[in-house]
Amino acid sequence: MKAYDKTEFEHSDVFAKPFMKWAGGKTQLLQELEIRLPEHILLSKTIPKYVEAFVGGGAFFFYLKGNYDVKESYIIDINRELIVGYVAIKNNPGDLIDALKKIRKKYFSMKTYSARKKYFYELRDRYNDDMETFNYKRYSRKWIKRSSMLIFLNKTCFNGLFRQNSKGRFNVPFGNYKNPKICDEINIMAVHKCLKDTNIIWGDFYQSEKYIDSNTFVYFDPPYRPIKPTSNFTSYAKENFDEEDQKRLAGFYRKMSDKGAYLMLSNSDPKNERQNDDFFEELYRGFYIDRVLANRMINSKADKRGKIHELIITNYESNVNGDICQT
Predict the structure, then answer these.
(1) DSSP alpha helices (H): ranges in the chain?
(2) What is the pLDDT of residues 55-88, one digit of tens each?
């Protein structure tokens, strides 16, 4: 196969979007997030320094990179598989596209449901088994192969989810899509353009502290606190994010606010199910808490999806903020 030529996309005006489907992604909330940006950013269309401590699919990051002049950017996530994908696209987008094309060609050469399903599980097993010996600390061409498997699994698994069990193994079943977009080469190149001057870090949100100062806009999009106490769909990484972590994050938020940084955080609204649940009001007392409507999309039952409220919390007053939370 001829090596992929990326030059035709070097000057493309296509805006990047997440290269993976990501539960809890912020595509539907981009306008709500944007109108709550600090006023000086909205007016100047410039962000001196941007830090995102739970980048996930990166919808807001890509939106800002496409619509604002982001002078300096840092994206961080504790999910090392996700970071492998980001780094591979930053370093070798053309080779990744070639690898995805090979997978796509083989997948679509199989005409039956059973053959495609068998191939999915074979590749999923290989992906999980390779985890034991994979070198996450040193970049190599193996990162390209692993990223191609990751993207294939994400595009063809049930509901397009990314979920890991406690051992870090990808465990989402086959999704049986008729025509999944396994290789979106135009978007991969657009993502590459966004990442060329971006610092990509694997680690806990605390790793972001060294990059944050009074000149920084920080966006936090942590794993959401479950809407219902019985909900167990929180394992986007093998490291769970529980209520103690939510409290730890709130403490970090206050600490970064004291440094003079501009902060925005999103989370689920427990009042969707429990009107007297003041968990976030207590954690973020003294900050601005807004409730916005969003679609609940990750429930496996279609009749359980619908409009719910989500929280957007800032440490500064915007044009649409209400009063400071005094609860």
Answers:
(1) 30-34, 39-44, 59-67, 80-91, 93-109, 113-130, 142-156, 185-195, 243-258, 279-283
(2) 999 999 999 999 999 999 999 999 999 999 999 9
